[in-house]
Amino acid sequence: MSKFHTIGGVKIEKLLFVFTLLGTFFVFLIGGWHISLTILVVFMVIDIITGLIKAAIQKKLNSKVSYREFLKKSSIMLVIIIANLLNVLTASGCLFLEHGYFFYMGI
Question: What is the Cα–Cα distance from 107 to 102, expressed in whole angstroms?
Fold first, then answer.
């Protein structure tokens, strides 16, 4: 009997290590977790939920449309990553990053 817990034959410790590395890399790419990012993510989740509710009410649920909307949300995160890298490159604090947040929040 093994003293390590496994999921599908993989040790949980290895899974946690991989998730920790991926999470750390993602947070580095987006420049840390700011309140502005929290608000942006909340807006994105609300947009997704209301879009699904509208499609369900109109009986027009479509995986292609949902996939396209997911790609739009992914492109927003890509712009945030690019804005953070511009901040790092120019040593401008949070200039580009905050403008990216505010642009997509509609402020």
Answer: 5
> How many CB atoms within 10 Å of residue 81?
17
Q: Is the pTM of this model over 0.90?
A: no
- CA–CA dist 14, 91 (Å, integer): 36
Tell the residue number behind the tokens 């953070």, with chain if given. Answer: 84
| Residue 35 burial class via C-beta count within 10 angstroms: exposed 0-12, middle 13-18, buried 19 and up | exposed
Residue pair 43/63 in contact by the 8 Å Cβ criterion: no
45/4 Cα distance (integer angstroms): 37
HSE-up (13 A, CA, CB side) for residue 29: 12
pLDDT score of 61 more than 70: yes
